[in-house]
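Write out a record, fold above all:
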Amino acid sequence: MSGSPAAAGGRGPAERPGRAARRTARRRPAPLPQRHGLDPVGWTLPPGATTGAALEALLARFPALADPAATPLRDRFAAGEIVDADGRALTADTPVGPGDRLWFHRELRAEEVPEVALDILHADEHLIVLDKPHGMATMPRGAHVLGSALVRLRRETGVATLVPLHRLDRRTAGVLAFGIVPAERSVYQQLFARGEVDKEYLARVDPGPGATIPREPGERAELRDRLVKPRGELTTRREAGEPNALTELEVLTADADSSLLLRLRPRTGRTHQLRAQLSLRGAPIRGDDLYPSPRPEPAEPLQLLARELAFTDPVTGAARRIRSRRTLTS
């Protein structure tokens, strides 16, 4: 670990922030502070919305606010918890219409947060890099909110401006980078989007009888597919057409139980790319619940590790090579 995190930092020899960063800088800040490491929810009534009471507008957009287990929304208005863009408390009957922005904090369900210490691999005034464990979501979502990597890091470091620069599936472990300075976010995110970050993964797979990947240590292959993830579906599928997913594969070891340990270098970043490409070739990753293994009782956790990120830091110009301290079980 190098340096220490700070809530804001000066710019080094960085390139000018992109348009996205400049738009972010012009955007008005949220009128409510974070709570439990979570940003408040902001919602703008769309063009064409009917002018009406604030309570009815919120319930129409967020039906879950009427959940019997939640605090009655009218009580939340009475307590001053729903505010406008200037931070002024609204009443349940305040008229709102197109362009009006409402802010509130989500109410959280009870959640068991595993007592897993966070292993920070690198920290300076620009970046914090976490060695994420298996089972930890990157972003707060669904049943994984307080236990997500983003919320845990914000709460434990006190850096409220943290945002992930890329994502790892909840069941994938390994190197996960977060940006600190809002004006620098897009510069780092564009680095990932342009494929200028070298990523290395380890995966343990169980090839079936008809698997079409190499089997001998030292053998290599390129996996090329056109992958799409239809809206509303959990899994990615392959379709005909120009490949949009490229992964370089190398067999590291072939074990006595017929499993293989692979080194994978994805050159693109499609959803579930590694899991889908290996499953399509008859060699699903051990423990995969979406692209299942032929083993009768898939191992837990998913045997996929984001082992390394390497890039030239666009803000400081430094060469970064950050490696996970985690290993895969056999």
Q: What stands out?
A: The first helix runs from residue 19 to 26. The chain has six helices and 17 strands. Residues 1-18 have pLDDT under 50 and may be disordered.
